[in-house]
DNA sequence: TCGATAGTTGAATATATGTTCAAGTGTAAT
DNA sequence: ATTACACTTGAACATATATTCAACTATCGA
């Protein structure tokens, strides 16, 4: 057994199998960014926002009205989407218009939608 | 304005635009199941388990050793994956062997992985 | 039968997350 | 200037979730 295999007390491990998989295993960093990516889509409010923006550019007001939610709640969620660089926005006088800005997420989104609709 | 548009005090809504999108909007149920689907992949421990099982059938011990986590923690996560019908298992004497049991999730998983690795 | 091993489970704890509320910013109209 | 509007933001709160711990089941070997 190599040192990295005996970090726990477990006896019944197939060491060879485990080492083979460990060689190609996701790094901690990969696992975290992967799960963070999926986390964006792991909330119904955000999936609705993403769906709506996949149809058309919308201001915060439009989204709030569409989802029947408060401006504040929507704005908080848009900030998350902004931080993850999934949406971009333009300001026109007092209004702020959002659009989708990541085709990968759109692809994931539609894969997932296909999945639940089958 | 139709009654469904004035649930909030917002004035600057583009009613026509909003109504058009609302017609094809995700239902609450769709949004919830979609986000639940993505929630499965929204945790680094589970993404690692799914990755490992995409390579080979493994017992709980193997997974715990691979992830350097407690049996209990792994077992709790496997229960979530079982409840979502993403893994299946077979018992062989004292050991329980898990395998992946949902190709859709595997597809989503690899889409996401492609995304973060680009 | 007894002890050891593989795994599950419920309760407890800690942390993350979503919404609300209240206060703030910036722009435009009066 | 002042008011109204379209947001944004920080704090507070409630809820969800991941891990640990301890207790439990079930199977195997001595």
Record the SSE blueprint.
The structure is a homodimer of 118-residue chains.
Chain A: H1 15-24, H2 28-40, H3 44-55, E1 58-59, H4 60-67, H5 71-83, E2 87-92, E3 95-100, H6 103-117
Antiparallel strand pairs in A: 1-3, 2-3
Chain A binds a DNA duplex (30 and 30 nucleotides) through residues 10-12, 39, 43, 45, 59-61, 69-79, 91, 93-96.
Molecular structure report:
The structure is a homodimer of 118-residue chains. Chain A has 118 residues and is mainly alpha-helical. Chain A has 2 domains: 1-40, no CATH class; 43-118, Winged helix-like DNA-binding domain superfamily/Winged helix DNA-binding domain (Arc Repressor Mutant, subunit A, Orthogonal Bundle), CATH 1.10.10. The radius of gyration of chain A is 21 Å and the shape is elongated. Chain A contains 6 helices and 3 strands. The longest helix of chain A is centred in the last third of the chain and has 15 residues, at 103-117. Mean pLDDT of chain A is 90; it is low at 1-8. Chain A has a 3-stranded antiparallel β-sheet with strand order 1-3-2. At the A-B interface, helix 1, helix 2, helix 3, strand 1 and helix 4 of A face helix 1, helix 2, helix 3, strand 1 and helix 4 of B. The structure holds a DNA duplex (30 and 30 nucleotides).
N to C succession of SSEs of chain A? HHHEHHEEH
Q: What is the oligomeric state here?
A: homodimer
Helix content of chain A: 55-70%
Query: Major sheet of chain A, described briefly?
Result: 3 strands, antiparallel
Number of spatially distinct domains of chain A: 2
Mean pLDDT of chain A: 90
With helices defined by DSSP (H or I, 4 residues minimum), what is the helix count of chain A?
A: 6
**Strand residues, percent of chain A:** 5-15%
CATH H level, superfamily name of the largest domain in chain A: Winged helix-like DNA-binding domain superfamily/Winged helix DNA-binding domain
Q: What is the CATH C level class of the largest domain in chain A, in words?
A: Mainly Alpha
Topology-level CATH name of the largest domain in chain A: Arc Repressor Mutant, subunit A
Q: Would you report the number of β strands of chain A?
A: 3
The geometry of chain A reads as elongated
In angstroms, what is the radius of gyration of chain A? 21 Å
Query: In the CATH hierarchy, what is the architecture of the largest domain in chain A at level 2?
Result: Orthogonal Bundle
Query: What is the topology, as strand order, of the major beta sheet of chain A?
Result: 1-3-2
Structural class from helices and strands of chain A? mainly alpha
Low confidence ranges of chain A: 1-8
User: Terminal Cα separation of chain A, in Å?
Assistant: 46 Å
Measured by residues with Cβ under 8 Å of the partner chain's Cβ, the largest interface is: A-B, 62 and 63 residues
